[in-house]
């Protein structure tokens, strides 16, 4: 495939959208009268659940096990697909708005947190190709994690082999007042990395996460680990695997 001339400038992209073959927009050089403005890309911010670890189904399993334990296993009325990319607190607040269990919000949060940490420790579900991608990107970019999960869960994931040393900046739901799709968590990560939002790539798998990255003014790569491509079309690029991310960011 021929590479447009401006793509050969490593680490720089035009502010115009530059989608992959799976993404719906058009290359900016189809409009030669508009001079592209270049910005040096300095950082890559990773979502965690569904990007670093295959944890979305494991989060759901942990929720269901807790609900079964407290007696609401068959009557909770929750559709967990609606909460992918959102915080545990939002799920439990919604549950408590419908039901009156014997546990407080903090107790439910702790029960689910402990359950998912046990699952992650046991199964270590890091996506194939993720570690190799992170190691390659670390030679070119500043890296961060920005996750809607609780800090204890994020720390447990990053403690898995081959991850922690590559992420000097980690932001969790505890560090911001608004979760995704608000841009707060990505803006906080950029501030800690000491780069502008426009110099950041975001790697996401969820619809709220894509919306948050775009709202932050960042370029978003959506990977189809959780949602099909047609549900992620707001992203700058849509990819199927980690090699395609490397191809985009390490030209």
Commentary on this structure:
Helix 2 (88-98) packs across helix 3. Helix 5 (151-158) links the parallel strand 4 (142-146) and strand 5 (169-171). 35% of the residues lie in helices and 12% in strands. It has 251 residues and is of the alpha/beta class. It has helices spanning 56-69, 88-98, 105-123, 130-137, 151-158, 184-193, 207-215, 242-249; strands at 12-14, 38-40, 43-46, 142-146, 169-171, 200-204, 219-223, 237-239. It starts with 11 loop residues before the first strand and ends with a helix. It folds into two domains: 5-53 and 126-249, 3-Layer(aba) Sandwich (Rossmann fold); 56-123.
Order of helices and strands: EEEHHHHEHEHEHEEH
Oligomeric description of these chains: single chain
Strand content: 5-15%
Would you count the extended β strands for me? 8
**CA gyration radius, whole angstroms:** 19 Å
Report the uncertain regions.
1-35
- Main β sheet profile: 6 strands, parallel
In the CATH hierarchy, what is the architecture of the largest domain at level 2? 3-Layer(aba) Sandwich
Strand order of the largest sheet: 5-4-3-6-7-8
Shape: globular
Compute the number of structural domains: 2
What is the typical, i.e. mean, pLDDT? 86
Structural class, judged by helices and strands? Answer: alpha/beta
The first-to-last residue Cα distance is 13 Å
Helix content: 25-40%
Q: Kindly report the name of the CATH homologous superfamily of the largest domain.
A: HAD superfamily/HAD-like
Summed up, the helix count is 8
Q: If you consult CATH, what is the topology of the largest domain?
A: Rossmann fold
| CATH uppermost class of the largest domain | Alpha Beta
């Amino acid at each position: 495939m021929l590479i447009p001339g401006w793509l050969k400038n490593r680490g720089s992209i035009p502010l115009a959208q530059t989608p992959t073959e799976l993404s719906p927009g058009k290359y900016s050089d189809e409009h030669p009268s508009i001079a592209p403005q270049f910005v040096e890309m300095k950082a890559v911010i990773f979502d965690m659940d569904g990007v670093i670890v295959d944890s979305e189904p494991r989060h759901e399993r942990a929720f269901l096990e807790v609900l079964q334990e407290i007696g609401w296993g068959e009557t909770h009325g929750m559709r967990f697909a609606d909460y992918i990319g959102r915080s545990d607190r939002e799920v439990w607040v919604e549950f408590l708005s419908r039901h009156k269990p014997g546990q407080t919000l903090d107790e439910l949060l702790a029960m689910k947190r402990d359950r998912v940490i046990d699952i992650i420790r046991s199964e270590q579900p890091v996506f194939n190709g993720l570690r190799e991608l992170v190691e390659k990107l670390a030679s070119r970019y500043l890296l961060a994690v920005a996750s809607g999960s609780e800090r204890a869960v994020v720390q447990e994931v990053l403690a898995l082999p081959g991850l922690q040393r590559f992420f000097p900046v980690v932001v969790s739901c505890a560090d911001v007042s608004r979760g995704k799709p608000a841009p707060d968590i990505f803006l906080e990560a950029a501030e800690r990395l000491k780069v502008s939002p426009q110099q950041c790539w975001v790697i996401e798998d969820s619809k709220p996460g894509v919306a948050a990255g775009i709202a932050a003014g960042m370029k978003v790569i959506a990977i189809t680990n959780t949602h099909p491509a047609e549900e992620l079309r707001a992203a700058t690029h849509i990819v199927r695997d980690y090699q395609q991310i490397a191809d985009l960011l390490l030209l």
